[in-house]
Amino acid sequence: MRAFFDPSEILDRTRIVERLLDYVRIDTQSDESSATCPSTDKQRDLGRKLVAELKELGLRGVGEAEVSMDANGYVLAELPGSAPGRIGLCAHMDTAPQFSGTGVNPQLVKVYDGTPIHLAGGIVIDPADTPELKDCVGDTIITTDGRTLLGADDKAGIAAIMGALEMLVQDKDIVRPTIRVCFNPDEEIGRGADKFPLERFGCPVAFTVDGSFTGEINVETFSADKAVITFTGVSVHPGTARGKMVNALTWMGKLLDRLPMGEAPECTDGRMGFYHPVMLSGDAASCRLQLILRDFDTSVLEERGRRLQRMCDGLAAEEPRLRVQVEITKQYRNMFDVLKGHPAVAAKLEEAVRAAGITPRLEPIRGGTDGSRLTEMGMPTPNIFAGGVNFHGPTEWISTRVLAQSACTVLNLVQLFAEG
Q: Where are the alpha helices (DSSP H) in 242-362?
C-alpha cells in the first residue's frame, strides 16, 4: 500500500479547495416541512454540478452507462477497480435549515496566526471557545463572512471524496477495489437514507465522510425517536371560564416543567441521553409539542418514551377533561448495534487514519448520520472526519490541511480494502 500522509500533496495535485469553495456557494438547505424528495429542488443544482464533475473525471454510471442523478436527487457514480470487491463512499448535499445558507461568501484566512478571527456583525471565532483552532496555526482557514453557515457539513465531505477520486484517476498504479459514490439529499432533516438506492448501490460496506475535526471516526451514534404530544382542552370564553375552561397551553406548560432539566441537551454530554422539546404550536383549545428523544442505549431510549407517556397519563389523570395523545415514532438506531458484529470494518478505518499520520479518535456521535440508517438497512457504514468545526452556524470553519487529511484517509482506506 502507498500510504498518503502528506496533505500538501493533495492540496497541490487536486482541486479539493476550489471544489469546496464552489460547492458552499450553492444554496442547498433542506426543508423538513416539504414532502418531496429532495425536500428542496435547489439541492439538484449541486447534484447536476457533481454529475458533470464526476463525468469529467471519467467515472461511469452505476447500473447504467453514464453518471446520473436519479428522480429523488441521489447522485451515483462508479470508479472501476484494479482489485476485487466494492466499497462505497457517501456524503450529503444539503445544509441545515437552522441557519441561512443563502449567499454563502467564504473567506480565506491564510497562514492563520492563532488569534481570534473577526467576521462581520461582531461574530468572532475564538480559539478560547474553539480549541481546534490552536492546532491549525499556519494553516489556511475557510470561514463564513458572518451572515450564513459555511456548509462544510457536508460539502467538505463531498470535496474530500472528489479530491481522493482525482488522485486515483491521476495515478492508475494505486490498487483499489471498485469504488461507488453516492451524494445524497436531505441528511440534515433525517431523510438521507429514505430513498437511498441501496440495491443498486450494491456495496457490502460503505463510509460516510461527514465527521468533524481531524482524526475523528465514528462507529457509534445516538438511537433516536421523535415524540408528538397533542393536548386538547376545553375552550370557553375567558369572561365566563371559571370552573369550565381547560387551557391546553397551561397543561402543556406543566408537562414541560416535569421534563427533567438534568436530562436536557444543555445539561448533558458524553454518553448521556436527553429529552429535547423542539417545537410548540397551537392555542388554549389545542396545542402540539414535538420532542426528540436520544440515548446511546436503545433500551434506555425506549424507557424514555415510556416515562414520557407516564408523565402525560399523570396530567390526564389530574384533569379528566383534558385529552392527551402521545405518538412516538422511530427515527434511527445506534449504528454500533450492528457494527460491533463487523470489527474488521472499524479496524481498517483506524488503520487508514494512522497511515495518514494521525492518531484516530473514536468518538460517539451525539446525533446521527446517514450511516445510522444505512447500517441498520444492511450496509455497514461508519463515519470519517471531513474537517469542519462549529457546524450549522456563522462560526463554522475548516482548515484546508485537515480537509486534505480527510482525502488522505479515504485513499488509504480504499487501498486497505483492496488488500482484502
A: 248-258, 298-318, 336-339, 343-355
Q: Contact 344/200 with Cβ under 8 angstroms?
A: no
Position 419 confidence tier, pLDDT thresholds 50, 70, 90: confident
Within its chain, how far is the Cα of 117 from the centroid?
A: 25
Residues 160, 212, single domain; the answer is yes
Domain annotation covers residue 198: yes
Give every CB contact of residue 181 below 8 A, 6+ residues apart in sequence. 54, 59, 75, 76, 77, 78, 79, 88, 89, 90, 161, 165
**Helix segments in 137-281, DSSP class H:** 152-170, 198-201, 248-258
102 and 177 co-located in one domain? yes
Show the CA angle centred on residue 269, arms to residues 268 and 271, nearest 5°: 110
Q: 358: closest CA among 1, 9, 5, 11?
A: 5
Q: Which three cell numbers stand for residue 269?
A: 454530554
Q: Are 91 and 142 members of one domain?
A: yes
Q: pLDDT (tens digit, 9 = 90+) per residue, 161-173? A: 999 999 999 999 9
Q: Which of 216, 143, 161, 145 is nearest to 391 (CA)?
A: 143
297 is catalytic: no
The one catalytic residue in 154, 187, 376, 396 is: 187
Using CB atoms within 10 A of its CB, is residue 113 exposed (0-12), middle (13-18) or buried (19+)?
A: exposed
The answer to whether the beta carbons of residues 328 and 268 sit under 8 Å apart is no
**Pairwise CA distance, residues 402 & 407, whole Å:** 9
| The Cα angle at residue 220 between residues 261 and 195, in degrees rounded to 5 | 100
CATH number of 157's domain: 3.40.630.10
Identify the bridge partners of residue 280 per DSSP, sorted by sequence position.
Answer: 289
Contact 400, 9 (CB under 8 A): no
Of these residues, 27, 53, 94, 188, which one is catalytic? 94
Backbone Cα Rg of the chain? 23
DSSP bridge pairs for 76: 68, 182
User: What's 29's DSSP letter?
Assistant: B
Full DSSP string of 30-95: --TT--SSSSSTTHHHHHHHHHHHHHHHT-B-SSSSS-EE-TTS-EEEEE--SSS-EEEEEEE--B
Is 263 a residue of the active site?
no
Q: Tell me the pLDDT tens digit for each residue of 315-359.
A: 999 999 999 999 999 999 999 999 999 999 999 999 999 999 999
CB of 394 within 8 A of CB of 99?
yes
